[in-house]
């Protein structure tokens, strides 16, 4: 990876600065040393006095001793000589993920994790008096957190009692179903609706910031933060593997169904969380491949939430599914083109769309491609991911559309650009084309 340059962030008024990422998947199959180097390079350029770096699971690709040894070696190399604001070395916080259970097995994984990292898989720790609770799956299933129920209950109470005006970070590899982007499909068992319902515990503390990995979804998607359950849930993408988003899209080159977007192997993203002296939290999203922030930082007003709760007033959570953006636009001279390559394959060409404004919710997340029969027959609809996560977005697209049966008759294409929240552009339309080869 090309080394990127970052400007230091102001430190005044910041109680604790914590770098967070997940899904390192340290192994020989991935450029683990290179990507972890990019993570720490960005962390220390932005925060020369980084207080802590937290890794939210899937530290390794299968949990063997060689991969853990490489992780320790890389981490020691990149943190050597660095210290936080207290003068102590940067704290390293490791969480366990499902991949870390693969070789030792889920029943032994927590013990192996503890032996290899020197840390407890479940623990309450502190970063400049900011509480951080780590959760680990197991021992019955690689995605099951119900065994953490009593520990979480005690830890939340202890954290809120000791520092009642500060956020409580809860780090767990799997997301909570139906919260941050991609957790509809990638999530853990938090005992919802049972006597060991961890979500119900979290809902008692609006100052909770739950950070998960597992999904590998792009941080440029504004749905990566969600507060719909009464606390904050964030998915942190992947630092060491590949992007993977939601189902329902296709690969633009092959026409086959795909959850991995184009150039997904370039993935290397992370968070930098600032806890201010006031208790407010500012979360910066880092695209380490592109060398830029993914968008404007998220701001979580913990004091306002706690004050409203104390006063019995409604809590204001701005990051919910009800957010909207402005529909994207194509340039005035943009045109779509339809061409049939084979009896069952069409090629659709169109230029990129653009956000209508600078709001993060208005960015182009996907394109909808509809092939319409002139005689009113059944249309063909496909979706592709945009490439907003790349350093340079492509100016022109060529998307292959495959069907199970040959195209017959006369067709035209309509292309719409979509935001993450469903706002659609006006369609680009092609001239009618006969499906004759």
UniProtKB/TrEMBL annotation:
Residues in Calcineurin-like phosphoesterase domain copies: 17-217
Domain of life: Bacteria
GO molecular function: hydrolase activity
InterPro entries, per the entry: Calcineurin-like_PHP, Metallo-depent_PP-like
Cited SUPFAM superfamilies: Metallo-dependent phosphatases
One Pfam family this sequence matches: Metallophos
The name this protein goes by in its record: Metallophosphoesterase
Organism of this sequence: Caproicibacterium argilliputei
């Amino acid at each position: 990876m090309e080394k990127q340059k970052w400007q230091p962030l102001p430190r005044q008024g910041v109680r604790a600065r914590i770098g967070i990422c997940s899904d390192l998947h340290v192994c020989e199959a991935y450029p683990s040393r290179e990507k972890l180097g990019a993570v720490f390079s960005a962390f220390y350029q932005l925060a020369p006095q980084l207080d802590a770096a937290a890794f939210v699971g899937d530290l390794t690709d299968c949990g063997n001793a060689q991969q853990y040894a490489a992780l320790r070696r890389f981490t020691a190399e990149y943190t050597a000589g660095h210290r936080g604001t207290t003068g102590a070395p940067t704290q390293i916080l490791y969480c366990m993920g499902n991949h870390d259970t693969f070789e030792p097995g889920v029943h032994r994984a927590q013990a192996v994790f503890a032996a290899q990292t020197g840390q407890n898989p479940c623990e309450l720790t502190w970063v400049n008096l900011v509480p951080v609770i780590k959760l680990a799956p197991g021992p019955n299933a690689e995605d099951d957190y119900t065994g953490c129920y009593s520990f979480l209950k005690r830890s939340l109470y202890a954290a809120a009692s000791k520092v009642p005006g500060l956020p409580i970070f809860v780090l767990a590899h799997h997301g909570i179903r139906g919260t941050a982007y991609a957790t509809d499909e990638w999530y853990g068992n938090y005992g919802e609706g049972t006597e060991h319902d961890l979500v119900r515990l979290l809902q008692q503390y609006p100052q909770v910031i739950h950070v998960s990995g597992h999904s590998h979804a792009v941080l440029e998607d504004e749905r990566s933060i969600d507060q719909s359950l009464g606390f904050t849930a964030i998915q942190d993408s992947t630092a060491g593997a590949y992007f993977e988003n939601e189902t329902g899209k296709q690969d633009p080159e092959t026409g086959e169904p795909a959850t991995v977007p184009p150039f997904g192997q370039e993935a290397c993203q992370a968070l930098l969380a600032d806890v201010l002296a006031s208790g407010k939290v500012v979360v910066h999203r880092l695209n380490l491949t592109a060398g830029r922030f993914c968008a404007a930082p998220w701001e979580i007003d913990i004091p306002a939430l706690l004050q409203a709760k104390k006063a019995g007033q409604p809590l204001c959570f701005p990051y919910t599914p009800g957010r909207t953006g402005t529909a994207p636009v194509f340039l005035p001279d943009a045109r779509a083109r339809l061409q049939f390559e084979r009896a069952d394959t069409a090629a659709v060409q169109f230029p990129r769309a653009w956000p209508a404004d600078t709001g993060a919710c208005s960015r182009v997340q996907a394109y909808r491609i509809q092939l319409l029969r002139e005689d009113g027959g059944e249309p063909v609809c496909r979706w592709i991911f945009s490439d907003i996560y790349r350093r340079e977005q492509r100016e022109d697209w060529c998307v292959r559309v495959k069907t199970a049966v040959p195209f017959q008759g006369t067709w035209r294409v309509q292309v719409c650009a979509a935001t993450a929240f469903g706002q659609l552009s006006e369609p680009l339309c092609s001239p009618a084309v006969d499906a004759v080869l």
